[in-house]
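Quick start: what a row looks like.
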Amino acid sequence: MNTHDATVSDKQPLPALTGLRFFAAVSVLIYHCEVLLVESRSLFVLASAAVSFFFVLSGFILTHVYANRLQVSGWPAFLVTRWARLWPLHIACLALSFILIPASQHALSTRVGLLKLATSVSLFSSWSLYPEWTSPFNPVAWSISTEFTFYLAFPLLLLIPPKFFGRAFLIAIFATFGLLVFLHQVVLDGDITLLKRFYYMNPVARIAEFICGMWVCYLFRACWKLNSAGSRWNHTLIECVSLVILVAWIIVLSYWATTPVFLESTGTEILWRWIRLSGGTFPCAALVIWVFASSNGHIARFLSSSWMIFLGEISFSLYMIHYVMLSYFLTWQIPDQSIVVTSLAVLAASIGLSTILFKLVEIPAKDSIVAFWKRDRQGIAEVFQGLGQLLRRPSPLVAGVGMIGLAFSIVYVEQKTQRIRENFAPTGDHIEFIGSGVLVSHSCESLPDGALSFTLEWRVYPDNSKRRFIHLTDNDGNIVRQLEDIKFVQSAKQESVLDRFVVPKEHLSGIKRIKVGFYSRESGMAELVVKGESDKDRRFCIKEFEDPSKL
C-alpha cells in the first residue's frame, strides 16, 4: 500500500523513518563493541552520527505529530506522555544492569554511588560535565536525559511561527558556539577535557540538532507535493545520493578525528571540535530524514516492510539495553575469544531482550501511565487485555527468548572450540572478586634457589579501583608477611592480565598458605565468590604447604 498521499497530515505514517532507527541503534552498538572489545574509537563518528540522527528525528517526528494540535492546555499531558516513553524502560535497563553486572551492584554500596543513581533516575545525568556522573551504570542513558530536556523545550519552541524557524535555528547555532567559547575561556579555564563532555552530551550543546529536525519538518510539510512527485527509480536515486553524502561525510570526519590539526585561535579550535564531536553530522542526518520521509523508492519500501518496522519499533529498547548486554558478555569472555563472535552474540541477545522489553515494559508502561494520567479506566483495562493476549499468543516473546538462547549458544560453541592455552592449568572454579576481576588460572614453579614463582591470569574489570595484594599466613591464619600490592592498569575493556611475582625462600619459613585478594582504603576488601558461593575470608588460597616447619 502506498503511504504517500497527495497531502500530508499529522497522522500521516512515515514508516521508512521507523526502519532507519534500527540501523542507527545498531551503529551505536557496533561502536561500543569496538571500544570494549578492540579498545579503539575509530568508529566514534559513526556513533555520533547515529545519535545526531536520533535527535534530529525526534524534533522532526514531534513537529510532524503535534504542530497542529498541541495547545497550551495540553502541555502537561504531552510531557507526561513523553516521560512515560522514556522513564520506565530506563528504569528496567538500570535494574538489569544491577542484576547482570556485579560492578554496578558494588557501586551502590557508597554514598556517591547512590547520588549517581539518583541523578540517573531523575534524568538529569547529562547536565554534569564529569564522565562518572554523565554515564553511570548504563552509559547510553545520558542521551535520554538530553532528549527529555528537548521534550521540556518543545512546547515553547512550537510557539515560534514556522516562517521564522530558520532564523531560530541559526540563532541556536550561534548561541551554542558563543556558550562553548564562554565555558572554555571563563568557566572551565581552558580545560578542553571537560568541555568535550559538554560538546557531546549536554542538552544546551545539542539543542540545535533538535531544532534542525523541527525546521526540516516544517519545510517537508510545505513541500509535500513536490517531494512526493517523480517515479520510483528517481526516488531510489535520490535515496542513494542522500546515503552516499552521509557516509562520505562520516568518513571525512573520521579522517579529521585521527589527523593532527593545527589551529591558531581558540574560536576555530572550539568550532572544529564541536563539528567533530556533535555538530558535524546532523545536517546530513536531516537530509536523509527529509528524503526518506517523502520518498517512495526501493530503499524506502524495504525500510517500510513489516519486519523492518518492527525492528525500528524495538530500536529504542535495543539502544538502551545493548551496553548492558555487552558488559555482561565481557564478564564471561575467555582469552583470545573471537571479537566477531562476541559482537554477533551481543547483537542477537540485545535484539531478543529488546523485543521482550518492548512488549512487556516499554509499550504497556507508557500506555498505563498515560491512561492513569487521563483517569481513563478503559485505557488501563485495554493495557491488561493486551498483556493477556500477548501471553496467549506469545510468539514475539518466544522469538526474543530464542534470540537470547542463540546468543549464548554462539558464545558456548566458540568457547568450547577455543584452543586451550599452553603452560596454564585452569583453576576449574569460577573465582571472582566482585567489582575487581576473575582469576582465570594460576601456576606455581619452584626456582633453583628455593624461591617460588607464581603466574596468575586475571580478567580485570575496567572499573576496578582496588589493588591486588598477596598475604603469606601461618598455620593459624595470621598474616606473617604481605608482598607489595599492585594496581592493574585501567582499561576500557575487561582484558586478560598476566600477574607474575616471586616469593623468596627466606619469606617461606613458617608459612602455611599464600592467599590473594583485592583491597582499597575507601571500600575495603573485595567480596570473593567461588562456584557461586561467597567466601567469608575474601582471600583465595593459591598455595598451601603440608608442613610449614620444614620450609
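That is the whole record. Residues 1-9, 419-428 have pLDDT under 50 and may be disordered. The CA atoms of residues 330 and 494 lie 6 Å apart.
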